[in-house]
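Components:
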Amino acid sequence: MTTEPSSPRTAAHAVDLTKIYGKDDTRVVALGGVTVEFAAGRFTAIMGPSGSGKSTLMHCMAALDSSTSGEVYIGDTELSGLNDKALTKLRRDKIGFVFQAFNLIPTLTAKENITLPLDIAGQSIDKEWFDNVIATVGLADRLGHKPNQLSGGQQQRVACARALVSKPEIIFADEPTGNLDSRSGTEVLSFLRRSVREFGQTIVMVTHDPNAAAYSDRVLFLADGQIVDELADPTAEKVLERMKGFDAVGQQA
Amino acid sequence: MIRATLKSLAARKLRLAMSAFAIVLGVAFVAGSYVFTDTIDRTFDDIFGGLSSDVVVRPDLPGEADLFAGFATGTTTTIPSGLVDEVADLPGVERADGDVENQSFFVLDSDGDVMTTQGAPGIAVNYHDGPVADGAPVLELVDGELPSGPGEVALDDRTFEDSGYQLGDDVQFVGTGDDPRVTAELVGVVRFGESGSLAGASLSVFETGYAQQLFLDGDDAFNRISVTAAEGTSAEQVRDEISAILPGDFEALTGADVDEETASAIEEGLGFFNTFLLVFAAIALFVGVFLILNTFSILVAQRSQEMALYRALGAGRHQVTRSVLLEAFVVGVVGSTLGLLLGLGVAQLLKTVFGAFGLELAGGLVLQPRTVVISYVVGIVVTMVAAYVPARRASKVPPIAAMRDDVVSTESSRRVHLWVGGGLTLLGAAAMATGLFADVNDAALMVGAGIFAVFIGVALLAPVLATPVLRVVAGWYPKAFGTVGRLARENALRNPRRTAATASALMIGMALVTAISIVGASANATVDKALDDGVRAQFVVSNAVGQPFSPGIAEQVGQVDGVDEVVSVRMSGGLVDGDQTFLQSFDPVAYSRAADLELVAGTDELGPGQFLIGEDQAESKGLSVGDTVRLQLPGSDEDIELAGIYAQSPLLAGGVVVSQQTLADGAVPSLDSMLYVIADDGADLATVQDGLKAATADVPTVTVQDQDEYKQQSRDQVNQLLFLVYALLGLAVLIAVLGIVNTLALSVMERTREVGLLRAVGLSRRQLRRTIRLESIAIAVLGAVLGVALGLLFGVSLQRAIADDGLEVLSVPGGQLIVFVVLAAVVGVLAAVWPARRAAKLDVLRAITTE
Ligand SMILES: Nc1ncnc2c1ncn2[C@@H]1O[C@H](COP(=O)(O)OP(=O)(O)OP(=O)(O)O)[C@@H](O)[C@H]1O
Ligand SMILES: [Mg+2]
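Structure:
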């Protein structure tokens, strides 16, 4: 869709992206030609009914899954031409993830989990940045703990810190607060928004929760594998209103 | 519940197949050993069944029938021909034929090489047409004619076929007469019994008078009498009738008893094979227990949510236990079936190998119902016993676990492990110590049970031991390999019980290999020491398989230029105070020039009716110079006097030494077992050796060796046995490797999401593979370290235990042990190949989203 006029550049974008699962009877068009841009330094939320293709879009954008056709760019790099090795490196260096659950390696401490991508890449840790991130996440006293000694909200914040610490081009978060109560969810969401505001991080987040979407700068609405609408500077009320509209449309279809 | 169990079984085919592999191998050994022994028994019962006449008369030997057979010397006591006539005249006797028989008359083929395989006798007999018990003659002429005078011979058909001789050729023989070489014209070919199989031996047939000339110094005498009962008289009746008139040093037996004795002596001789295979079956199954226990534990752990769901849905504890045991049962049945089939293969392989070495086992394999039953019982019981603990654990999964993520092993079960494991280890160690150092019956059993208990104890302790050992073994990983190393170390440490159980299988194999290698190295070191310190003679003349040879050889050797003295050593069995005893016989004065012999009491002037003994034996028997013991030989029964006590030396092992006259008086054939050759001072040893070789060239049954060669030969004998044992222990290690593969594969599956996550945050396939490889190496090295430690303990105690029985020197092959640990690391790398590849192939997205 349209680029925010104020945005200096795009962190990632897709052109006519389609994703088709299965063949013949089991054929499912999960994405039916999506063209989208994610501006750098922006917090984008993606919403839509279950099965609309939100996760599929994230996975294709994040080099976790291949698209059936169309192009995906992270920065200037087009993904379809890359082999597994290059994709691994791209994920490691340019992309951060936060999943709905099971984000952490149980055998490693919080700190080790946070620095994992850097360690894997063999890069040294930018100490100042690390401290900055830790302070923002508010986990300074929990760094030596293993994941099973942390609450669900703390675990998600560790996951966010891990995504941030390697200063990726873009972070994808698929329902990062889906498993959390509203207080923990709020912790995580405000942290994500802070990292956009203060560090200029780019974040794309899938959510079902209008309150969560309200933390973002822009909401994209997905239905049946298509982007059907978008909303700038959302509030929970505005988002709810829009969603009601889609539900009606969905029921007609 | 049963349906659900079978479904889950089908879904885990591969993992269960790997755990069943140990059962398959174990059962294969059990089945193979039974099938093979049954086949051997059948073969020899066939060969020797119905081969004797109705009644046999022979010299009465003291002790058990095989006491003297072991030295192939028999007895020089013969049966005068007058006695044959006397027996023939008895009313119940139809006919009586005198037999001449010799077991050390070897056929040389047309190239001059000895034809029989190592250790098999060269049998020579006289010909007569007396029938065996069932009426048929023993020998059937198949070609040419029967030998009818001096210088003629007939050979059995198998020997004939392999020999390269034609009828009319001169056949060469090596015997034990004063002139060892004999030549005779081949006039006929005979077939022995129905099958023609002689179990590797050769058979030469001579006319009676010529046979007496060759083997009995021309006396008109015999070694046995074959008696045929008259019509209407039973063998037992005839036997009793003959016994009544026999002088005391002869005995009469029914042919059936003789046949059975012969067959069972050979079967017993091969019986060590059975024991050997069964021991390895036990090892394979023992190792297998750990593998199965581990596999089921992991499967149960993985399914704890499923189990909890069953429990939440109302299934009782017993139902859960039973469903796991049912799985084990199915695995046991499948494993046993495959094992039985493989066992038949093993038996067939052994049969083929034996055939290739000339010991042909006629007919097919014998599969008795007993073998089938044992195979299934062993396979199923072992599997279910191993699965019992995991099954119990499964039933303890609380229904609430269905909602939880992980079920951690409770602290209390760890304490139980510690106590039970520690207790068993101590008990086992105590049993070993008792068996080793205290004077108890069944010492070997005590040591064996002790070792077994220590194994299980340490295996139980392993989870506790694993953590500190792994911290060392894998401690340097993070430094050397960064994050990949840290992940590997943490993975190895995360479930010590599982890691330990996996390593335990390897531990057992390694412990055995280590113990054996220590015993082997000690045996080699003992041989070296015995020969280095003990032997001064420059050359040794001996027979490769220990068969005795003609005293004529000593004479020929003595005439070689540069030979100062030849010391003859003879060996025999005998009863000393009623105990079967190994006797050596030589002139101590001459012997002390050739080898180490130092008197600590009495004299080395050893006369007839006297003996020497080592100081340890003298002490344990409470003998001092002048005391007497009772010595029974085939032809004598007398008290002999202790003339001297010698210092313990590994070469003589402290045994009883008698004079050669004593043996000869006891009707033991005067044959040499070994000659020490002392060269003249300053003689050129190479020239002397050439001379010795030339002097014995026409007697291919003996070899001349200098000290180095002799030492090497002794060492080779030890090593040959070791290699066989290593090969079989290799199987235990193979099972252990499969255990590691299995555990790793299961762990990787268990960690699918983790793997996906790591890949998502940028871990490359290569790094992932390395992580798994490092984990595998840590497990393997853990097993090897524990195993080598245990093996050291076992090996050293074994050596200590038998130090007095000839394993005097302790040698720990340090380099070899290090090689074992390094090999274990290689094993770890290999075991990781497949699981690592699987993990690397996982699709990132699918791995993350997997449930
Ligand atoms: N691996 C797959 N194989 C086949 N079909 C799939 C696969 N993954 C997703 N789909 C289908 O693609 C469509 C989009 O799925 P997707 O997971 O992107 O939805 P979503 O918007 O993330 O839903 P939710 O809000 O429930 O997470 C759905 O109809 C789904 O059934
Ligand atoms: Mg989704």
